[in-house]
Please model this.
Amino acid sequence: MQKRIKIKAVTREKDAAGKFQTNLTPNATLEGKELIGRWADFSRLNAAQAETTLVLLKGFILDELAKGNKLDFGLVSFYPRLSGALSSRDSSPGAEGLYVRGAVKARRPLMNGLRDKLEAVNGLTTVQAHIYNVFDKTAKRFDVLATGHVLSVAGYDIPVDAAKEDEGVWLERRTHKGYERVAKGRVVGYSPDLTEVVFDEQIAPGTYVLAFYTRCGHGDGYRVVRVSRKIRAIAP
Model:
């Protein structure tokens, strides 16, 4: 089996809690003489012929688009489209400032063409954050929470920097849309394997999730990871 080439994936947190967006960083950008050289090697043309074919292809696409035609190359299709939207069905595009521009759409062979050929890898250090147990020091019970009680959370690699807005300890409730934040905890103590946190807001009894948002002690360039454990809130 052919070895898959690795490509770097960079993950950033989105506005929604616990949601992340991942983009790939190309291994190289081919342009100018390097692109022509690669195309010449692949097509077995000399450099002059390879450059001519690329220039002609670009001119051909633009010329056909200017005639109002759609070009389907099997991998991608080029077509004219309007920039903007009309205010009503019978509006005039020109009167509303819309204009025609070129557009490109990926066809299915292109969308599936890299499957099992490239392997995406996170460019940042892999973390192994984990929560082992949660102990209510006041109620002397595991995996329970009460307003004003100190929770002693034993875990691995779960430091929280309270100075950073995207880090913290939250009590969350699971919904059909994901996890909804209910209350933010106040970190009152930390050691390498133990974090103490207090929830000052009144918490209604029920089942929740205790979620740590942490960079695991790494720098600002690292994504925030979420590590959680189910917990039951009781009346104080």
Observations:
- The helical segments are 32-43, 47-66, 108-111.
- The two ends are 61 Å apart (CA to CA).
- Residues 207 and 232 are 5 Å apart (CA to CA).
- The chain has a mean pLDDT of 87.
